[in-house]
Design a protein that fits this description.
The complex is a heterodimer. Chain A is mainly beta. Chain A contains no helices and eleven strands. In chain B, strands 2, 4, 5, 6, 9, 10 and 11 form a seven-stranded mixed β-sheet that branches. In chain B, strands 1-3-8-7 form a four-stranded antiparallel β-sheet, with no helix packed on it. The chains are: A mainly beta, B mainly beta.
Chain lengths: 107, 124
């Protein structure tokens, strides 16, 4: 199985900060990489597919980049509603696997 | 709009089985694969299996082979997940999630819509 490793595991940031989360795959996955946002007690929400394609309705402050083994999710200006846990997921190879999550907290 | 509505919280004893449901609306049920993903308390996400609602064919993660069964009822647009021989390690929130690819193609394993989740607690 492909291992997905996110860093950092958690971070604290101010409202208005630019935040970047990285995700590394244990082998190349082309651009078959998704990002999800999960708030406490809620289901994950799809943000980005194909490494950089925003899902419908997702604000443009979110952006994704990368290919191969290294990927990143950037939030350009953190807002209170963005404080959540973010997960990456590869769907290049069966079975699909997720990163361990990055918790974004208020500083 | 696409909606996946799951059954409510359940409590089971070790060794028992649990059957969860996920009712879809807002799209043609038989057109899209449906997956199940679980999340243990404070933990990450773990894929369990997928069903083709049109053909009824299934594929399960190796970890759950022999313990999980996915079925569907096309008359009610509902997918069911049956998990047997429960242990405390199965305490988790279970999500159904739709694949973004139609059944005319192979599963993509990208999940565009998720149910609200069902908490299953396994305790004696």
């Amino acid at each position: 199985d492909i291992q997905m490793t996110q860093s950092p595991s958690s971070l604290s940031a101010f409202v208005g900060d630019r935040v970047t989360i990285t995700c590394r795959a244990s082998q190349g996955i082309a651009n078959y990489l998704a990002w999800f946002q999960q708030k406490p007690g809620k289901a994950p929400k799809s943000l980005i597919s194909a490494a950089s394609t925003l899902q419908s309705g997702v604000p443009s402050k979110f952006s994704g980049s990368g290919s191969g083994t290294d990927f990143s999710l950037t939030i350009s200006s953190l807002q209170p509603e963005d404080f959540a846990t973010y997960y990456c997921q590869q769907y290049y190879s069966y079975p699909p696997t997720f990163g361990q999550g990055t918790k974004v907290e208020i500083k | 709009q696409v909606q996946l509505v799951q059954s409510g919280t359940d409590v089971k004893k070790p060794g028992a089985s649990v059957k969860l449901s996920c009712q879809a609306s807002g799209y043609i049920f038989t057109s899209y694969y449906m997956h199940w993903v679980r999340q243990a308390p404070g933990q990450g996400l773990e894929w369990m299996g997928v069903i083709n609602p049109s053909a009824g064919s299934t594929r399960y993660a190796q970890k759950f082979q022999g313990r999980v069964t996915l079925t569907r009822d096309t008359s009610t647009s509902t997918v069911y997940m049956d998990l047997s021989s429960l242990t405390s390690d199965d305490t988790a929130v279970y999500y159904c999630a739709r694949d973004d690819t139609t059944v005319r193609d192979q599963e993509n394993y990208y999940f565009d819509y998720w149910g609200q989740g069902t908490l299953v607690t396994v305790s004696s």
